[in-house]
């Protein structure tokens, strides 16, 4: 008699999801396979903050205020939380078309396939707020991309309201994590400016103690000074995008700026800065469209 077969371990859908993503904690955490320079981002933040708490805080608590470490700690906490939420969350990945759905879409295409077997590039036109928007066909996901959706070549996924793939956070920035990305760069700007001001105060105030700290504090001040300009520039750029309800991808392509001489108005703008910002940052969190934790049928 053959020994009884052990029942197959039920598999979850994240184990077979296409795309270049990594999953942790049984599918609860998602990350891009190419983490970019995320470890460097974390190292720079923690190293600069460590120098601040080690060298500046003891001196400033005695000479200025005991609230300085609390403010710095709160800003650092917000920076780390928003960074991790941006890096390890679903940015708005769209599930790929099933074979039946892809066959139906390709069947509706009028022109025959090319010699390579792939259908020729196709577009669909839809009306968004009384304006015609073209939808492009994605050959990888085998579907027409919804408005503002783009395919990330690094993550190999179509992402809703695709903004850009950020190497500093190691993930795509899209519909579901843009608010956390924007909060991250705002808090990082505040933290960098705060540490810069505290380091300058440490150097400016007379000190008879901590004789070894001024040189280290000067290095810390220089790092924060040169970093702050790029961070503030990035924050200002995304504030402009928020105010006009655009994405980085749309701005680079000049989709609504009239760079191509068409003068097309942005159909997604509410013509109100406050409303544009609130729509992107304060609306309800869109649900994830990929079923990571669901179980696969036994025959798959």
UniProtKB/TrEMBL annotation:
<comment type="similarity">
    <text>Belongs to the DHHC palmitoyltransferase family.</text>
</comment>
<keyword id="KW-0812">Transmembrane</keyword>
<feature type="transmembrane region" description="Helical">
    <location>
        <begin position="37"/>
        <end position="55"/>
    </location>
</feature>
<dbReference type="InterPro" id="IPR039859">
    <property type="entry name" value="PFA4/ZDH16/20/ERF2-like"/>
</dbReference>
<dbReference type="GO" id="GO:0005794">
    <property type="term" value="C:Golgi apparatus"/>
</dbReference>
<feature type="transmembrane region" description="Helical">
    <location>
        <begin position="217"/>
        <end position="243"/>
    </location>
</feature>
<keyword id="KW-0472">Membrane</keyword>
<keyword id="KW-1133">Transmembrane helix</keyword>
<keyword id="KW-0808">Transferase</keyword>
<keyword id="KW-0012">Acyltransferase</keyword>
<dbReference type="GO" id="GO:0019706">
    <property type="term" value="F:protein-cysteine S-palmitoyltransferase activity"/>
</dbReference>
<feature type="transmembrane region" description="Helical">
    <location>
        <begin position="61"/>
        <end position="84"/>
    </location>
</feature>
<dbReference type="GO" id="GO:0005783">
    <property type="term" value="C:endoplasmic reticulum"/>
</dbReference>
<dbReference type="GO" id="GO:0016020">
    <property type="term" value="C:membrane"/>
</dbReference>
<feature type="transmembrane region" description="Helical">
    <location>
        <begin position="180"/>
        <end position="205"/>
    </location>
</feature>
<protein>
    <recommendedName>
        <fullName>Palmitoyltransferase</fullName>
        <ecNumber>2.3.1.225</ecNumber>
    </recommendedName>
</protein>
<dbReference type="InterPro" id="IPR001594">
    <property type="entry name" value="Palmitoyltrfase_DHHC"/>
</dbReference>
<dbReference type="GO" id="GO:0006612">
    <property type="term" value="P:protein targeting to membrane"/>
</dbReference>
<dbReference type="Pfam" id="PF01529">
    <property type="entry name" value="DHHC"/>
</dbReference>
<feature type="domain" description="Palmitoyltransferase DHHC">
    <location>
        <begin position="134"/>
        <end position="253"/>
    </location>
</feature>
């Amino acid at each position: 008699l053959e020994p009884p077969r052990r029942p197959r371990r039920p598999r979850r859908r994240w184990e077979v999801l296409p795309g270049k993503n990594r999953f942790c904690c049984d599918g609860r955490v998602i990350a891009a396979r190419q983490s970019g320079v995320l470890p460097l981002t974390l190292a720079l933040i923690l190293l600069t903050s460590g120098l601040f708490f080690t060298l500046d805080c003891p001196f400033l608590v005695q000479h200025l205020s005991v609230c300085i470490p609390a403010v710095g700690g709160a800003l650092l906490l917000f920076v780390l939380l928003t960074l991790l939420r941006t890096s390890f969350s679903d940015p708005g990945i769209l599930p790929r078309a099933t074979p039946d759905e892809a066959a139906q879409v390709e069947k509706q295409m009028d022109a025959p396939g090319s010699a390579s077997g792939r259908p020729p590039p196709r577009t669909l036109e839809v009306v968004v707020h009384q304006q015609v928007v073209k939808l492009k066909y994605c050959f990888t996901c085998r579907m027409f991309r919804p408005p503002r959706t783009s395919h990330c070549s690094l993550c190999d996924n179509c992402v809703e309201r695709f903004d850009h793939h950020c190497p500093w956070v190691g993930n795509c920035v899209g519909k579901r994590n843009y608010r956390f990305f924007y909060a991250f760069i705002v808090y990082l700007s505040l933290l960098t400016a705060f540490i810069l001001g505290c380091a300058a105060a440490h150097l400016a105030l007379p000190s008879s103690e901590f004789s070894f700290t001024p040189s280290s504090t000067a290095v810390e001040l220089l790092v924060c000074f040169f970093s702050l300009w790029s961070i503030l520039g990035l924050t200002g750029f995304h504030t402009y995008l928020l105010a006009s309800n655009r994405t980085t991808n749309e701005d680079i392509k000049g989709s609504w700026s009239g760079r191509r001489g068409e003068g097309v108005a942005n159909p997604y703008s509410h013509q109100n800065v406050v409303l544009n910002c609130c729509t992107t940052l304060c609306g309800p969190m869109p649900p994830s469209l990929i079923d990571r934790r669901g179980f696969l049928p036994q025959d798959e």
